[in-house]
Amino acid sequence: MYRGGKLLLSNRNLGNILTRASRGACNDVSGIVVGAYTKNENSVELLADGACINEETNGSLMKQLTIGHAIKQNETRIFWNLHEKYPAICVVGLGQQDKKDPFAHLEAINSEKENIRNAAAVGCQALTNHGIMNIKCGNLNDYEAAAEGAILSSWVYQEFKNAADLKKLPTLTIDSSPENQNSFKRGVIKANAQNFARMLMETPANHLTPTIFASKVINELSPLGISVTGHDQSWIAEQKMNSFLSVTQGSAQPPIFLELNYSKNSNSSKCFALVGKGVTFDSGGISIKPSAKMDEMRADMGGAACVVATMKAIAEMNVNVNVKAFIPLCENLPSATATKPGDVFIAKNGKSIAVDNTDAEGRLILADALCYASEQCPEWIVDVATLTGAMGIAVGDGATGVFSNCDNLWKELHEASIITGDRVWRFPLWRHYKDFLTKKSSYDLNNIGIGTKGGGACVAAAFLREFVPENIKWMHLDIAGVMSGSCGKYLKDGMSGRPTRTLIQFIEQISQKC
Predict the structure, then answer these.
(1) CA 402, CA 390: separation in Å to the nearest integer?
(2) Distance CA 419, CA 311 (A)
(3) Which of 445, 434, 284, 466 is nearest to 354 (CA)?
(4) Residue 101 needs a FRET pair 20 to 30 A away by CA distance; which of 7, 77, 329, 353 works?
(5) Other residues' Cβ atoms within 10 Å of the Cβ of residue 209
(6) pTM of this structure
(7) Contacts of 206 (CB under 8 A, 6+ apart)
(8) Domain of residue 410, residue span
(9) End of a domain among 131, 149, 184?
């Protein structure tokens, strides 16, 4: 269990109760979050839990709620001492029920689910701000979305805080009827998985070297029945992963190649593959980055974090599927032994690569990982990487950028992202971008391209395409733009763990169609 809190299902009533491990929460006063839809300018409708409480208070809750204007979407109002069991009642506005947005199709998001995530988040936060640390999140019409919003919004990374300065964390409970237990449990698992990815991404690089990262993965995933193998530098060299090794030369920390295997569907020989970029710190190497915000490059293993978190979740959800994951782990640092701009290396598939910019290292380690993953003959490969600053410029933190050689694979991921609220957007994977990589006659590929006029994310994706056989369905997720920043009301500033929930939903959907 990591400091900062992890939400767990109570063994006493599995699937019905959500408990947060907390520090310093000593307030015994209980609060509840209930939802209310606006019917018109002066009328509201309380959802089930709120309606029940209103009846138990002889209508006092509704009387106070309807004083003044009707409660607005994501607005919170706290009412005190109306109810014996819940002295603090937080009503959160869910907006106007059944209101049609003519532009909803352009948003590429399930607005009802996202609305509930936000409502659960702002409601829990409002009570916490008033010192209420025992909180029940009532039924907001979608148990999975409510669990996600409540859990994601309450998480905080404070591993290295002095004990006296630790933020108090709430204990959250959500009761659900038996028919809603699965929905609720999925929300808990998905949100916990994303928080696990956030924890890995926030951890300082000196506390999460490749070796430590591998150790954490073994400790977290092995008990779930996932096979975890950590290959050392000699194995990597035997595999002729020279592109990967070129990035590792400047660091004293040895590289590791992680191989994960989740085998649940014994009736199928099909296997899916995930590949995650695992640069545990990226200084840029000899092509060193500016010092401003370089500390954020502790999260340059965000792709690896999301892949590990996804594997964790599908195992906990017992998804009937076979998935392998491949994670090259290393640091990218300058030193007397570091790769120099202009050096040429031969990748696992025999292609020569001129490294003109050592800060374009992610594609170098992914190249060999994609080759190795392809050798396992998977049904498809999805790689996840904080690959290019260009993606952040293109879409900011609004969506993960996606490149794919398979329309159906893209459509499945896009559908999953609409459900989770963690959106994706497709970019072109044209041969036009490959031309910039192959202009020189003295080697096969240049790692950044020659003569490019923007389109850095597209050029990077074109580079990766050179290491995936044409007969394998493949999708590349550039998560550089969504690595950090807030999202809705339920994700605060900091490392985001995105798009973990979308990956989980994606694999779950595909498993149901196999």
Answers:
(1) 13
(2) 19
(3) 445
(4) 77
(5) 20
(6) 0.93
(7) none
(8) 208-511
(9) 184
